[in-house]
């Protein structure tokens, strides 16, 4: 039989009942030598949000866009920096800047530019962009979907809210915009958390499993 390796706890629980052998958990790592905080929170432009553009409904972009529009209604100087692999969406307001096919260096620059990184996912296995953003010092505001809980702890290194609740997402963004000390605390805790998700750590676990 196959050796089953999964990237998150909730997937492990899904696979185990159907597996003839052990199911091993090795959480998705990132390159923490590249994804790091170059610009501290207090050096970033106020009211800035990062966002991944994806067409799959399960990514919850609908709720993210609703949330940023609510925030923009309160703070009209809000800027959103969105990136993705798809062509630029039609009819984007001028305050949402889109980068198609962003390189690693471009995503790192975006993560370091924004105060908040927003994720409105309904469900996904892990959610790598949230972890990358935390590594770069952005405050993660996300729905409380299963995958994000592999690294996000509500109130400690992120602010999590119910799925499909754009108002709750917007409220969490506004809270961070209006509380400098909380932005700094969430950001710093996120940076600390990500140190546990290095490639070296993941490969060490994989080597022990294989050899």
Summarize the structure.
This protein is an alpha/beta fold and 211 residues long. It is built from seven helices and eight strands, in the order E-H-E-E-H-E-E-H-E-H-E-E-H-H-H. The strands form two sheets. It has a six-stranded parallel β-sheet, with helices on both faces.
* Residue runs with pLDDT of under 50 for 5 or more positions: none
Helix content: 25-40%
Terminal-residue CA separation: 17 Å
- Say how many strands there are: 8
Cross-sheet strand order for the largest sheet: 5-4-3-6-7-8
Tell me, briefly, the overall form.
globular
SSE run: EHEEHEEHEHEEHHH
Content of β-strand: 15-25%
Discrete helix count: 7
Strand pairing plus helix content: what structural class? alpha/beta
Please outline the major beta sheet.
6 strands, parallel
How large is the radius of gyration? 17 Å
What would the average pLDDT be, to the nearest integer? Answer: 94
Give an account of the 3D structure.
The protein has 211 residues and is an alpha/beta fold. Helix content is 37%, strand content 17%. It contains 7 helices and 8 strands. It has helices at 9-15, 61-74, 104-113, 128-135, 166-177, 180-194, 199-210; strands at residues 4-6, 23-25, 48-52, 79-84, 96-100, 116-119, 139-143, 158-161. A 6-stranded parallel beta sheet has the order 5-4-3-6-7-8, sandwiched between helices. Strands 1-2 form a two-stranded parallel sheet. α2 crosses α5 (166-177) and α4 crosses α6 (180-194). The longest helix has 15 residues, at 180-194. The chain starts with a strand and ends with a helix.
